[in-house]
Design brief:
Blueprint: H1 18-34, H2 37-45, H3 51-71, H4 78-93, H5 103-131, H6 133-143, H7 158-183, E1 191-192, E2 195-196, H8 197-204, H9 229-235, H10 251-255, H11 281-285
Antiparallel strand pairs: 1-2
Length: about 300
Amino acid sequence: MEFLGLEYLFASHQRVFWVYILSAFLIALVYMKFFPATLEEYKKRKIWSHKSALMDYKYFVVISFIKVTFILPLILSSKDVALWMTLFLHEQFGYIEALPLSKNAVVVLYTLTLFIVGDFTRYWLHRLLHTVPFLWKIHQVHHSAEVLNPLTFYRVHPIENILFGIRYAMSVGVITGIFIYLFGANIGLVQIVGANIFVFIFGLLGANLRHSHVPLRYGDTLEKIFISPYQHQLHHTIAYSHKNFGGALALWDWMFHTLHREKVRVNLEYGLKQKSPHETVTQMLLQPFYTRKKA
């Protein structure tokens, strides 16, 4: 079951947690009721049976096996980073009395800080994946998808998985270490079914529609704060692949001039300038080291 990735359906920190999938499905149904052109797009392009979607399904099984067997046992632990950070602060500044904030205030502050710092570091790593040539070769595995579905989220090269794992361990570990140093044992998370409340809300409000053909917008004002599904869909087009790097928040794109918004179009073309060379999962895994022969 682990190797098939089916446990992801029951893990609230995973994008395809069944509650998030159900929520996205219901939002999509309502959207299609008012904008039937979206449903026609699904029928016309045969999204779910498209060869790119079929590759996503196969790749999801393989990458789940690789992550469980090879990546997770080796990845840096956020607990180790937190311990190192706490010891470092003690060595540099000595022991201090815990700051006089109530436990509830500390928990809310810690939860919010993790979410904001996590999203900020995700933005910059994602941007680096587009600007550093070798990293872009790795990230092209994700951008080679010619149609989008929730499992496209997992269409990620193992090297990219490692990089995001290190980012997670470092951001969570450093923030946790600082909070332990400042507030002692009072830290904790505001959670819903085991997930950070902000992650849960993000998932519940249609995060899976980001990798879909449902062009849901939030409007000009909100799209300066939050990345809408349509903004991420634009990120998967050739023209705007170097825009809209944000995870949940569009603030970073707005602040660092990578934000793009536009009116809805239902016939967006996704993928790379050159058609994907991937005919097999093996070719996807060899993507960073694959040089396409000139015609």
